[in-house]
Amino acid sequence: MATTSPPPEIDDPPTRQIEPVEDHQVIEEFWEPDTGATTAEYAITTLAACGFAALLVVVLKSEPIKELITGVISSALGLGS
Predict the structure, then answer these.
(1) Is the dihedral of CA 29, 34, 38, 44 positive or negative?
(2) What is the DSSP annotation of 58-73?
(3) How far apart are CA 80 and CA 70, in angstroms?
């Protein structure tokens, strides 16, 4: 028959010591500098995205691309020859 140890008592002291910490230690532990983009980086990214969107609009409005997209959609729907 296996022997088991008795359950721990409620009044037993904790097995590890919890050390008090200062507020700045907690902040330094969870906050890392340069974890996100700064305002200038956001502005540059937004301008690049707008430029890419404008280029995409110009390309998609061109007649050869319109014909290509129409042909692909027609073939997919079985309307093509």
Answers:
(1) negative
(2) HHHHSHHHHHHHHHHH
(3) 10
DSSP strands (E only) in 6-73 = none
37/34 Cα distance (integer angstroms)? 7
Interval 4-11 mean pLDDT? 66
Kindly tell me if the per-residue pLDDT of 39 is higher than 90.
no
d(CA 44, CA 6): 65
- How do residues 27-38 score in pLDDT, each as one tens digit? 666 666 665 667
Predicted model pTM = 0.43
Whether 70 and 76 have beta carbons less than 8 Å apart is answered as no
Domain ranges across the chain: 38-81
Rounded CA-CA distance 74/64 in Å is 15
